[in-house]
Every structure is written in structure tokens, then in C-alpha cells.
Design goal:
The protein has 65 residues and is α+β, with helices and mostly antiparallel strands. It has one domain. The chain is extended and about 55 Å long.
Length: 65
């Protein structure tokens, strides 16, 4: 097993990384549905650079009065 893979699994287990499953085909062929990605939840204020993958939260449903 690769040392990088072991480090990524350890980071996820310790809470330093958050795992997401790809659900759509918008990133194909780079990411396919079912692929898993690890993200850094502490990257606030970080400016993404070319080739970075950015995970965004879905918008909240509008309130209906």
C-alpha cells in the first residue's frame, strides 16, 4: 500500500479530512460517479489554483412564508 494512501486514511480517521462521494458526471472523465475524494475542512480563506477541486455546499431551499 502506498504511504500517501495510508496518510490519507489516517487523516480521515482523525477528523482532519472529510470524505465525499462523487454523485454526478460533471467532472468526467477526471472523477466518475462513485469515486471518493478527501477534502480539507480547514482550508477557509485558501484561494484555489488551477487543477484544484472545490467542493461547495448546495444552496439552502428558499423560505416560503
Amino acid at each position: 500500500m502506498s504511504i500517501l494512501l495510508i496518510a490519507a486514511l489516517a487523516a480521515a480517521a482523525a477528523g482532519y479530512a472529510v470524505s465525499y462521494t462523487v454523485e454526478g458526471r460533471s467532472m468526467a472523465p477526471t472523477l466518475e460517479p462513485g469515486h471518493r475524494v478527501l477534502t480539507d475542512p480547514f482550508a477557509d480563506g485558501y484561494a484555489p489554483v488551477r487543477l484544484d477541486i472545490v467542493v461547495a455546499r448546495p444552496p439552502r431551499a428558499p423560505r416560503r412564508w
